[in-house]
Amino acid sequence: IETRRFPRLTMGRRPIVGGNWKCNPAEISKLDGLVANINACDTSGCDVYVCPSPLHVGLVYNKFTNGACVAPQNCNFKGCGAYTGEMAVDQMVDMGMKWCLIGHSERRGEFGLPTPVESSELLATKCKYILEKGMKCIYAIGEPLPIREKGIDAVLAYCVEQLTPFKDILDPEKVVLAYEPVWSIGTGVTATPEQAQETHAAIRKWISENVSAACAEGIRIQYGGSANAKNAPELSACADVDGFLVGGASLKPEFAEIVAAIAQAKA
Helix, strand or coil for residue 214? Predict the structure, then answer.
C-alpha cells in the first residue's frame, strides 16, 4: 500500500461510536424507543452508527434523523442469489446503507455456535466485497481471557493474526477497527484505560510498521467491551481510543452520553 493513498489528517481522527443491538429487542414495540435513543445523539462532533438485529434492519433503516447510519451485523460475500439465510451488500446499498460490521467475536463462535468459526481470511474476503460495492466496513478484533492473562505481547500477536489478512485493504477512509477484549464483552468487566490505550497503541504501531505510518495515523480504532456512560469519559481521554462499539448500553438512553463524552474529549 502506498503512503500517498492516505492523506495526513490534519484535523485529527474524527471519533466514531457504534451501537450494537445484537439480537435485541424481543418485541418490535420497543424499537421506537431504541431509535429515539440514537436520534438523541449529537452527531456534530462524532460519527454514529447502529447495528440492529437482522430481522429489524428493514424496520428501522430509514428512521434515523441525525445522520446516524445503519450497519448490519454481518454480510455474505457472494451477493444476491441462492444464499439462504444471508444478507447481501447489494441489498444494503440499495437501501442506502453505508456501513457493515463484520468479525464480532460472537460471529467468531463466542456464543457457542457449534460450527466452524468465521476465519479472518473469510472476513477479509467479506471486507473486500463490502469495499468493492462502495460501502465501509467496521472490522472487530480482540482476544479471549487466556490470551490477555499472558500479557500485551500475546494480545498483540493474537490481534495481528486477525489483522494480517487485512493488510492490503486497511484504508482509513473506508475501514474502522473495533478492538473488543472478548473477556469484557457483556460481562460488566471493562478493560482499564491503561489496558485499552496500551493495546490500541500497540495495534497502531504494528499498522505503522507493516502497512504505513499514514495508515496508522489515520485509521480509527474503537474500544468495545462493556463501554458505558460512566467509563466513557476516562476511556475517551486515551490518545489512541477513537470511539466505542457499545453493546448493552446502546439499548439505553445513556448511549447519547457516550457519544457526547468522546466528542468533547476529541474536540
Answer: helix
